[in-house]
Here is the input.
Amino acid sequence: MKRSNLMCVLTDVHLWVPVGILILGTALLMTLR
Amino acid sequence: MSTTSHYQQSTLSLHKLGVFCGLAAAVWLGSAEAPTKLVNAGFSPFIISMGMVMGAFVARWTVPTLLKGTGFLFQDLVDKPHLIVWALLAGMLWAVGNTLTIFAVRNVGLAIAFPLWNTNSLVGLFWGWLLFKELRGSGFKGWSKVLGGAFAIVGGAAILAVATAQHSDTPGKAATGIIAALGAGVLLGTMYIPYRKAYISGMNPLSFVTIFTFGELGTVFLLTAINTGGVGPLFHELQRARPMLFWPFLGGFCWVIGDLFQQYAAKYIGIGRGIPLSNTNQLWGLAWGALVFGELAGVNSSARLLIFAGSGIMILGALAISMADPGDSELVNWKSAMDRECDRYGLNHTNVAAVVAGDDPHAGRPQQRRWWEVVIMCCAVGVFVWLALGTKAQQISINFPWTIVLVIGTLIPLGVCGTLLWRRTRFS
Here is the structure.
């Protein structure tokens, strides 16, 4: 992947919304078990 | 939009195609539950889930290879390498969401848990509106059909779950179960962000799922290992479950076919419309449970009334969404979301627009088949034959006439929808 594309990925809100939800969901799962 | 394909293309509208895909997805996702009912009690739900995901992994490689060939899939991934991140992310979201549903069912029972995590379609609808401009410019009529339909499907699901639940007497841990179910709904609804992003960027659903499955299998493996006490105990449990592993594998295979139709629905009508339609899968799961496995033999008349009411409400919701074609003003917003991806990632606007419209310029070209595709197919068939040979007969009575009817009823949407997709888009 081009470096410019990598920066676009890292600054994309479409990435951080699911990543944030995934982190919260995983934390929830670890708390519940 | 320009059409550069070289084949005789059907004139079916993309909305109708997407609706057919959403409904076919419901049939196959619901039917995927049937094989897992043949699993004897005594196995951890994590092991059954792991078996399904392993079956899904096999299917997610063989079906795309069979339909398009690995050359096409690799080229699609090379053209949009940034989307690999989102495909992996979607698989991970599914794995964590699915594990939460297991906790939810354990703690509060299916009756409460299922409607709560079924709200994933409303979460998906929200993200579709916020991030991909779905439903914007659709007017009051469009909004009321889609939103009303989505709420009706969730409501119908709630009624069905209450009427059919057999294990609702789970004292204590209620709050934990409710939180787990709600969390699952949010995770599964958020999983549709990567789906939609991939498709408005011109990625083929078949390429997307071949990467998705790595995120899915890796995360499920990790979570199952944690929950069974490590990798060693996990393999021991899998070995112990060997005589029944064929059934979750088969369920995983059926699930992938349903998921592929769901992916095409998300591509052609968006997640706001496609996901509620595929969430009517509960109707088909209910049909298998009631007609083939006789699960509702003991229910009273008021429960039967609730089942009919819930099913009717779901069907009305699906009808409302089916009739909600996006108007020109909404399509302008869809295009603007697509343009954002093209500008941001340097994609060719004309090519992406053609693929989004089901006219992939590469779709009609004959694909060169590779020798390793034969190896992939042989491995997949070999795994299923090996598992089938070691499977012990399960002590469960099934209704054969209804099994035949439902198997035919499951194969017809596969044939019809597969043909429609081929004629209209060549599976693009």
